[in-house]
Amino acid sequence: MRTVNAIRNVLALVAMLAVAAFALQAQAQDPSRGSPAEAQAMVKKALEFYQKNGREKALAEFMKKPGPFVERDLYVTVYTLQGDSLAHINPKMVGKNMMDLRDPDGKFLIKERMDAAARGSSGWQDYKFFNPVSKKIEPKQMYWEKHDNLVFAAGAYKPL
């Protein structure tokens, strides 16, 4: 009897692992979604471009759709430490102070990021935001870095 229970437990574990592997594979194969690693790499690429080409040219380049800093659901944003939007995929946000912007759960997402940038030079932030590809509000993991008193960021949307 003990052997039968052990076999059942092993089979149940194998089945759970197979389901988990399938879910991860399906997520990884979704070509419309960027990964957190790709978001972090995009921020580093944006910073390199900024340092090489200057503020004016870089900010304009970050908002080009299509362009090298807008790829699938990944895009670069740039804010001042006071929360003024300098570059964003949504041109309606550019030139505005976004410190009062809240996600659907009430989180002050820009204020939280600027507070973190006041204490450190880089980090990750979780919140919910509109995905321009799926056209839905989705959980997002944002990577940011501070440079020249600006905060450069890009984020990956998490599957629902």
Automatic annotation (TrEMBL):
Any GO MF annotation of the entry: kinase activity
GO CC terms in record: plasma membrane
Protein name (record): Histidine kinase
Keywords: Cell membrane, Kinase, Membrane, Signal, Transferase, Transmembrane, Transmembrane helix
Main localization category: membrane
Subcellular location: Cell membrane
Domain (Single Cache): residue spans on this chain: 8-111
One Pfam family hit: sCache_2
